[in-house]
Amino acid sequence: QSQIAESGGGLVQPGGSLRLSCEVSGFTPGHYAIGWFRQAPGKEREGVSCISTSDESVYYRDSVKGRFTILRGNEKDTQNTLYLQMDSLKEEDTAVYYCASDAFVGGAWYFCSGFGFSAGGGSWGQGTLVTVSS
Questions:
Q1: How many helices (H) and strands (E) does the chain have?
Q2: Would you say the C-alpha torsion 74, 78, 82, 84 has a positive or negative sign?
């Protein structure tokens, strides 16, 4: 399994921006999916944005479309880094954000649903807290 570490969370005012980073080591050969999930206090975990390499699809949940952008590093020293650029943040975006990856063939939307993980559960980071508050 891959090793994953997130960073970049913090406190930001409504309307502000944050960029989360996810560093991944130990990718297994073959197709995979990777994405961002979040869990707010008292709520279930939900998929925010995911990428699937098998069909190069990208998924965003409706509530973040037009505000969040998922990016992969394209420089030699960032090619194993996944980013989540979050703009126009709202209080309802407050949550612990997790990066996760797993071997996967299919659409990014399905991986982000949470049902696309293998029996091993995939690889998850420790999470980074994003608090949007005035």
A1: 1, 11
A2: negative
* Tokens 């420089």 found at: 75
Q: What secondary structure, in 3-state letters, does 76-127 show? A: CCCCCEEEEEECCCCHHHCEEEEEEEEECCCCHHHHHCCCCCCCCCCEECCC
The gap from C-alpha 59 to its chain's centroid, in whole angstroms, comes to: 10
Letter string b/e over residues 45-65, b meaning 16 or more CB atoms within 10 A of that residue's CB: eebbbbbbbbeebbbbbeebe
- For tokens 């952008």, name the residue: 69
Q: What is the pLDDT of residues 77-93, one digit of tens each?
A: 667 899 999 999 999 99
The answer to whether residue 48 scores a pLDDT higher than 90 is yes
For 95-119, write each residue's pLDDT tens digit.
999 999 999 999 999 999 999 999 9
What integer is the mean pLDDT of 5-15?
A: 97
Do 60 and 48 touch, CB atoms closer than 8 A?
yes
CA–CA dist 44, 57 (Å, integer): 24
